[in-house]
Amino acid sequence: MKIERLGQDKIRIFLTFDDLSERGIQKEDMWQEIPKVHDLFTEMMDQAYSEVGFDASGPLAVEVFALPAQGMVVIVTRGKYENHQFGSLHEDEMPEEIYEMEVTLELSDAIVYAFSDFEALIEAAHVLQPTITDAGRLFNYKGKWILHLEPEDLDEGKHPALIAVLAEYGEATSVTPAVLEEYGKLVMAENAVRVICEHFKRQS
C-alpha cells in the first residue's frame, strides 16, 4: 500500500492485488458496504494519518480506479466539514457518521509502469519489442519515465509475460492515464516501444 498526498484535502492510495488478496478482498468488493472493505478503509485512513498526516474526519469522497494489471488506485478527498466539535474526542469516541463516504468507481484497462532510469526503460523496450509492435505512449512525470499501454493494442494472451517484463525493469504506478494527460509531459505520442528501440541501443 502506497500513500501520496495530493493536496491539503486529497490523498491517493495505491493498492496492489496482493494488498487486497491478503485481506480476502476481491476487486469487485471495493464498492460494496461489507465489513472487510470497511476494515481496509479504516486501515488506509490510519496509515494515511501516520504517514502523511491526513485527517479523515468529515465527509469523504472516495474514487476507486481499477487498473487490470497493477491493482487499484483510491483517491480520497475530504469535504468541508466542521470537525472542530470532535477535536476533544478520542478516536474511539468519534461518531460513526464521521466516515461519510461517497464512493465512485472507474475502470481503466491501461497498463502503466514507471521507470526511474531511462537505461532500464531501454532494456525493457528491447525485451518487449518482439511482443509489442505498434503500441505505447511515453510520458515524463515527476522525474520518472512513464510507459502507458492500452490493452487493445496488445495481444491479450501475452499480458502476463508483458507485465512480468515491465515489473522486472520498472514498477507499477498509481498514476492514472488522466493524470498523465493533464500533468505529465508527452515524450512519445505513439509506438513508444518501437521508437525507443530504433533510437537507443541496449547496453551490452
UniProtKB/TrEMBL annotation:
**Pfam entry (one):** MecA
InterPro entries per record: MecA_C_sf, Neg-reg_MecA
Q: Which domain of life is it from?
A: Bacteria
Similarity comment: family membership: Belongs to the MecA family.
Task: List the PANTHER family.
Answer: ADAPTER PROTEIN MECA, ADAPTER PROTEIN MECA 2
Query: What is the protein name stated in its UniProt record?
Result: Genetic competence negative regulator
